[in-house]
Amino acid sequence: MTTTRRAQAEWNGSLMEGSGEVTLESSGAGTFPVTWAARSAEPNGVTSPEELIAAAHSTCFSMALSHGLAQAGTPPTHIETSAEVDFKPGTGITAIRLFVRGEVPGLDADGFATAAAGAKENCPVSQALKAVPIELTILD
Fold this sequence. Notes:
Layout: E1 7-12, E2 19-24, E3 30-35, H1 36-40, H2 49-71, E4 78-88, E5 92-103, H3 109-122, H4 124-128, E6 134-138
Parallel strand pairs: 5-6
Antiparallel strand pairs: 1-2, 2-3, 4-5
């Protein structure tokens, strides 16, 4: 069964001086301000498309890793993933870095690293972002 999620963005004014909002409509989780300055310099409490991509990627990766581990007979008790998305004005998104740590009873570090690499390659958000280099770091 296919699911569809919806977000809506509104923008007012020019790119450099304007501002907007993005609303997470499907979940009703909220409306968040966006500006060019938050995207190209300091966020100052305002989000950006890249932060939203980082949120989506870290969540998708955690879910894919949890599922892969469970399918292999070693379900995790905890997975923690953070993502960084680099944006260069005039170029676009240039790199993504995933950082993960997990608690998986009965699994050694090599097994965890193998499962994490599989999740990196196969989570749907990673698949959608294949045009950008994605690095994976396993944290202690």
